[in-house]
Amino acid sequence: MNKLNEILQKKFGHASFRDGQQEIIEQMIDGKDVIAILPTGMGKSLLYQLPAYLMEGTVIIVSPLLSLMQDQVEQLKIIGEKRVIAINSFLPFQERELAIRHLADFKFIFTSPEMLQNEQFNRALKNLSIAYVVADEAHCISQWGFDFRPDYLRISNWLHSLNDVNVLALTATATKDVVEDIKNTLRMNNPFEYIHSLDRAAIAYEMVEVENQQEKMNWILGRVTSTEGPGIIYTQSRKKTEVYAAMLREQGISIAYYHAKMEQSDRILIQQQFQQGQLDWICATNAFGMGIHKDNIGQIIHDHIPSSVAGYMQEVGRAARDGKQAIASLLYTSTDVEHTFYVAMQDFPEEQDIHIAYQPEYAEVEQAETTTRILAYWKERLNEQETIQLFKQIKQKKWQDIQSFYSMIQNDTCIRRQLLHYFDQTLLEKPAHCCSKCRLDVTSVLRKRKDEKNNQDRLNWKNRLNILLPS
Amino acid sequence: MRFHQTLLFIIHKISGQRSENAPYYLLKGKKSGQTIQDVTYFQLHAFFSILPQLSKEDYDAAIAELINGNFIQLKESLVHITEKGIEALPQDKKVLLNGWQYRGKEQIFWKRIDLVVQTLSQFRANEKKFVPNQKDLATQHFVKDYLIQHNYREFNLSTDIKREIVHLLENPLLDDLHRTLFIYRLSGYKKAGLTWEQLTRYYQMTDLSIKISFLECLHIMLDNISVETNPRLVDLAKDIHIDTPLTDSAFKTNSLFEKGYTMDEIAKIRKLKINTIEDHVIEIVSTNKNFSISTFISKEQVERVLHLSNELHTKKLTIIKDRIPEVSFFQVRLALTKGEQIHE
Shortest CB distance from B183 goes to which of A74, A270, A465? Predict the structure, then answer.
């Protein structure tokens, strides 16, 4: 048995590598830059975790998603790795100081692009022997990406300040343009590119046009009460997550809502209840799903047109991790395009905001935090007119994205083919259950719900304590 | 006590003396001179800082409901309890909260016990890989050390902890609502705890009422934890009780008083306004009965202020000061604060 397989089994408990994993890891150990595009749930984390055990030095993982970082740390701790830490704005000041003073004790350091601007942290990093740098969710680097984070662009200068360090860029969604942006920003040197098909054969797609909101509710009610989950219903507003959940709960469905406004402790409990099967359904905004470890999700329902193909792919990609047939359903009305554009543009800086940002007394003006950060970045690089021009372009691109999503579901072409086409990929093999354009027989994909009433037991604290801590 | 009852109880104490917003700052635990002095004036220690997350919208909505229900009235920017309100006051129910003492630190105790139970539950099921509910490193480190010290590999720890939890929960001051909330917020192997929302739905109570009941439970547990009866749990309550319940700033001022500096000198050293130092003095006097106030006000003046306050049934500074012009506002506040301690 070779070294790679040995570590794979001993450390990670897997019998064999999945598609591409071994190749990528070998390239990294050889000291090459790597850019890897593979769908969520395809073992992305292993790519940066495993080589660490064959290489000297510390792995720095830069991730723009703070919520995900916590989860990644936990996943490493679960496999028994203690030399791991997330250094970000959530870490209390004193603990951060302590960690920075002992950086060399860690094998894995997760951090955010914002944190890389911290001088003290940077100085400590420069004295560290670095195995390689990982840019996670690398599509956020690209201003064309659906999740553009300006702070992430600063990684370019930071990388330049380190001496000749290898980079692994990971993402689950990237068009050709975005890949080019990633390569340039990360100063990648003739990188090894691995592009996995983003197709998820086990997911069937169903697009349903309805007349109005009421019909959407009726459709969801019918579907969820008659077929099996577990599933996620994605909607655009917090209020709606609560309304849908209440409506379905009344029908005896075991469901909870989830959105960013909830207390952290409750969000953790809902995630765990869903993962442990105490809940069949979650009704959520797009805040839900990052770091969810559940492989038997059978249905994903959207009640709206998503604002990007990439975001949509991530959300439906949470289904069928176990490879069993699942279905992604999308309900829409003809006016959804405007609504989605409106939602997407809520935090987007208008010409006026940009103008204000370029005034000398700017510091006095209050703007949304994300707006402020994005504008602060561009202010250093472009003049006012150029920035206005740039944002016009981005806005136009956004509108086009939403429009093209709409026409994709309206035309007669296979959904699967079109989704892949968006990422410049071609469909190699069409699965038996493809999509509503390919005469999908929905009944053959769905399982009938067993008519079990979800009557809530009376709470009994002594019994419960005995279950938690059995005698 | 439910949230509205709690609010009514507080308003009853300050009726006709303070604005309708005073209870808000009290519940939030605002560390201003006014709020801290009111805690002592009106004997509201139980409620100080019990709801640091309370939003103004939720608070205003509750006040509006009390007004609409004719339980309270607003007159000349003061809040009054009505006769109907007095009738609705919780009958001979003991106040279970102890906000002044714990100041939100009961949450640290909660985080520790939550993680200890979750860990032991996972270990009992032989499933040592799990995602901890509590994310902050301080709690995780504390619990890790605790488990090692208490030989978590031995079966005893889990049964001891269970017995000690039951013992604390069976305190007659608590009822089944308290006990159920506490146990069902805990998580274990394949059993995630219930969310606040799920509990409010089950009990048909508001979120704030549920949270107050939960806090009552934690406070009563902490009040009664002891080495004799809870040798296991007592360590989880380490550093939860506050010895000197002073704000950091007042604490610094107090140290300077102890070194013999005068108020003016302290203001200069700390680069603070004299008003702020006065607030600190009030705070110190509120918490420390032995702090001598003779350098700020004479015994006779204290007695005059208290006498007048009693006679006029008021704690409003302007009314008292109008009648005794030679004392300062600060002196009136000082006398009233001291006065409450004599009554205790």
Answer: A465
**Residue-level pLDDT at A415:** 95
Pick the CATH number of B248-343 from 1.10.260, 2.40.160, 1.10.10, 3.90.550: 1.10.10
| A13 CB within 8 Å of a chain B CB | no
Is the CB of B133 less than 8 angstroms away from the CB of A278?
A: no
Question: How would you classify the pairing of strands A34-37 and A167-171?
Answer: parallel
Contacts of B120 in chain A (CB under 8 A): 469
d(CA B101, CA B48): 9
Q: Give A54-112 pLDDT, tens digit per residue.
A: 999 999 999 888 778 888 898 898 888 999 999 988 888 888 898 999 999 999 999 99
- Give residue limits of the domains in chain B: 3-95, 106-237, 248-343
**Phi, psi dihedral angles at A445 (to 5 degrees):** -95, -35
Chain A touched by B49 (CB under 8 Å): no
Please provide the DSSP assignment of B154-195 as one string: SHHHHHHHHHHHHHHHT-TTS-HHHHHHHHHH--BTTBPPPP
User: Chain A closest CA to B186's CA: distance in Å?
Assistant: 8
Look at residue A335 and tell me if it is in a domain: yes
Tokens read off for B336: 């009233």
pLDDT digits (tens, 9 = 90+) for A229-259: 899 999 999 999 999 999 999 999 999 999 9
Domain B3-95: CATH architecture, name and number where available: Orthogonal Bundle (1.10)
Could you list the residue range(s) of the whole structural domain that residue A233 is in?
A: 203-339+403-445
Q: Taking CB atoms and an 8 Å limit, are A461 and B190 in contact across chains?
A: no
Which residues of chain A are within 8 Å of residue B116 when distances are taken between CB atoms?
Answer: none
Do B3-95 and B248-343 show the same overall fold? Answer: yes
Hey, how many other C-beta atoms are within 10 angstroms of the C-beta on A466? 13
Reported as half-sphere exposure (CB side, CA atoms, 13 A), residue A84 has a value of 18
Asked whether residue A319 is domain-assigned, the answer is yes
Cis ω for the linkage preceding B23 (within 30 of 0): no
Q: Would you tell me which residues 302-321 of chain B have a C-beta closer than 8 angstroms to some C-beta of chain A?
A: none
ipTM more than 0.95? no
CB contact under 8 A, B117 and A265: no
Is residue B45 within 8 A of residue B13, CB to CB? The reply is: no
